[in-house]
């Protein structure tokens, strides 16, 4: 999650000048066993999706060019506060969307987990691609140059984090076990009642939401204890927009927004099809959403009501 303030609203004007961002994606392949257990309509299986991804600038991203994402699997989406552009983490590496469309950033690695921690500062996990000298699995890797290069931090050849989220307090990841790290190097195991499909942590690190096939779980003590959110719809993806506002996507692509840190939710517009990745920022009239739906990357500048 991005923790460096909100970029200027000029990004929205750049985006809307070309209309809503709609980027065609190639279809996803067969899901893994973990992905097949993800929450689907009515509690069933859902399509493969990306993990929690970090915040978009207020009003939406600057990268408004349309085009196909050159990968069959999208695992995450985030916006880099250093340039205001959308970054998409995929089975075939990281892609930045600028005025010319998608541009590969760095090597061809399968980025199963991905989150933006600050300007040009990313965390990821997954598997090395052809020609990569990174270990398999990657464990937690870090980039401080917007994905151009990655440095192993910890748990190399041990962890493939399929969902990652970051806050001012550190990093949370799930590799079959929920793990927390203040520095990306030392880890503490945390209990969780069910395997999360995605994780999202509040900016200060105190409140965590995790989506499961039985509904979202919520922790108010940084992941040490959990409760089910009875008033929430079934959610596949969640992201914190600010300290109190959370955006979620249901398995059938409806947008849900909470103004009280995930306790109660309002259903809004639809992204269309099954969601794959999500990023949110701002609050109230300035709530902005970037969502990867079925074959599209979409943005909403009105809090998820229209895309």
UniProtKB/TrEMBL annotation:
Record key words, sorted: Signal
Coiled-coil stretches: none
Name of the protein in its database record: BNR/Asp-box repeat protein
NCBIfam families in UniProt: glycosyl_F510_1955 (NF045728)
Keyword match Signal: yes
The organism's place on the tree of life at top rank: Bacteria
Organism: Kineococcus xinjiangensis
InterPro entries according to UniProt: Glycosyl_F510_1955-like, TAT_signal, WD40/YVTN_repeat-like_dom_sf
């Amino acid at each position: 999650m991005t923790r460096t303030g909100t970029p200027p609203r000029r990004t929205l004007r750049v985006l809307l000048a070309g209309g809503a961002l709609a980027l065609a994606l190639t279809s996803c392949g067969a899901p893994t066993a973990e992905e097949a257990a993800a929450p689907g309509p009515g509690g069933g299986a859902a399509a493969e999706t990306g993990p929690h991804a970090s915040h978009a600038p207020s009003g939406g991203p600057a990268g408004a060019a349309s085009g196909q994402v050159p990968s069959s699997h999208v695992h995450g989406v985030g916006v880099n506060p250093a340039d205001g552009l959308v970054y998409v983490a995929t089975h075939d590496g990281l892609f930045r969307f600028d005025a010319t469309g998608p541009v590969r950033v760095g090597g061809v690695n399968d980025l199963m987990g991905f989150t933006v921690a600050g300007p040009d500062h990313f965390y990821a996990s997954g598997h090395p691609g052809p020609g990569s000298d990174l270990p398999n699995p990657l464990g937690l890797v870090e980039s401080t140059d917007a994905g151009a290069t990655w440095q192993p931090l910890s748990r190399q050849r041990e962890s493939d984090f399929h969902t990652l989220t970051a806050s001012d307090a550190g990093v949370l990841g799930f590799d079959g076990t929920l793990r927390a790290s203040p520095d990306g190097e030392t880890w503490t195991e945390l209990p969780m009642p069910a395997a999360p499909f995605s994780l999202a942590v509040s900016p200060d690190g105190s409140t965590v939401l995790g989506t499961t096939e039985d509904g979202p779980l919520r922790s108010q003590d940084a992941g040490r204890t959990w409760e089910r959110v009875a008033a929430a719809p079934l959610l596949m993806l969640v992201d914190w927009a600010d300290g109190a506002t959370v955006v979620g996507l249901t398995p059938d692509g409806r947008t849900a927004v909470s103004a009280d840190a995930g306790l109660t939710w309002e259903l809004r517009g639809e992204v269309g099809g099954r969601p794959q990745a999500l990023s949110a920022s701002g609050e109230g009239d300035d709530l902005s959403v970037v969502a990867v739906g079925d074959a599209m990357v979409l943005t909403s500048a009105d809090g998820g009501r229209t895309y």
